[in-house]
Amino acid sequence: RNVKMLGLNAGVTYGPLGATHHAIADVSVTRGFGSVQIFAPCDLPEARQVVEYAASVDGPFYIRMDSAALPIVHDAAYAFKPGEPDLLRKGKDVAVVALGSVVGEALSACEELAKEGPNPSPVNLSSLLPPNERAYQDLPNSPPPGRTSGPPLRPARTAPPPDVLPSGDRR
User: Which of 76, 86, 102, 147 has the smallest number of CB atoms closer than 10 Å to its CB?
Assistant: First the structure.
């Protein structure tokens, strides 16, 4: 099926209007559709390339867009690569991954952090599906192989048996 879907002003772009205007479930709902490719461009140059890519490829697409005047983070030499993380600046301590309308804010935050000590790498995640998991392994403080996100691995907490009360007494 060759369906192209466009989500306008998704996420938290209507910040001052509150939670009733935040469409934050669009990506998770769209992931449930199966083979839909999902993109969230962060600026106008990237949005143009994402739309051109979607128009040139058969298959279902969801593109999360914004009507706000977002900062331009890409120059004329930028080339969108589906599935690839877009490293905006090379840091060494940690990667800060953002998507869509918050990439400009994440980039600014990384620049401020770099002045004070930690040197983060801001990463634009414009391609949510399909991901290239191997590409994330080269980022600073990347998760171990087989994991693309989440907190550091630590032993799982085990729950007490169902016949033990919180006080430790048995039923």
Answer: 76
Burial of 123 (0-12, 13-18, 19+ CB in 10 A): buried
Cα first-last separation, the chain: 56
Integer CA distances (angstroms), 128 to 26, 58, 82, 99, 166, in order: 12, 18, 9, 9, 41
**Tokens, residue 170:** 């048995």
Strand partners, 129: 38
